[in-house]
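Quick start: read one record
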Amino acid sequence: VLPTLTGVDAVVTDPPYKMRGGGGTVPIRGHGVTEAKSESFSVGEPWGYSLDWVEAVLRLEPKHFVVFCNSYMLGGLSYELERTMQMGAVFVWKKPNAPPNCRNTPKWDCEFVVWMKHPKATNGRAKEFRSQVLEVPFPVAGCFASERVLKPGTVQAAHPTQKPVAVTHPFVERFTDAGQTVLDPFMGSGTTGVACVQTGRKFIGIEISEDYFDIACKRIREAQMQPRLEAVHS
């Protein structure tokens, strides 16, 4: 899809995370609120963790590039983007409701958000971020789910890595103007698209999974039926 596009104003995306050892396979045990499966992301070619997708998106000359990532991706992603863009900041998304780890690793209670900008771009409304730490709970699953998208008739999450709108909304709102176009080449459950609808931005979403694509389209259509949100301060 990317070669058919001619240009976008900003990119706000959450690509599949690189796991320890470099692989992209995520084993899901199936206990509690998740379905038992082993999901292997089909991004090895031509996307891959060589970050070829970054070059394909940079061709569209976005003014701002916002990418969610984990610690295994932070160095390579920043290096690749800084070849043509300037570092704006690295935000930390702190998840106060993160569960304890079952592995011998530090608690996974944060993720990173790399913000890069075109050398000629302004900072937008960056000063409205009162901190580079975004303390936003992630959407819960199960019988207490609210924002979390569930499989119909179950308490299982329909998407394993859904982001809350509250953590994407500020980037869409502060780094673009109303009517501008935001691209998410890894659309997932459509959170960035919902934030775009809420703020009056145009949205282009790309998703390799038909199931997730359908979920995203449904969420975005439902968001279009709701009134726009006021500014979200973080």
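Strands lie at 10-13, 25-28, 37-40, 64-69, 86-94, 110-117, 133-135, 181-184, 202-205.
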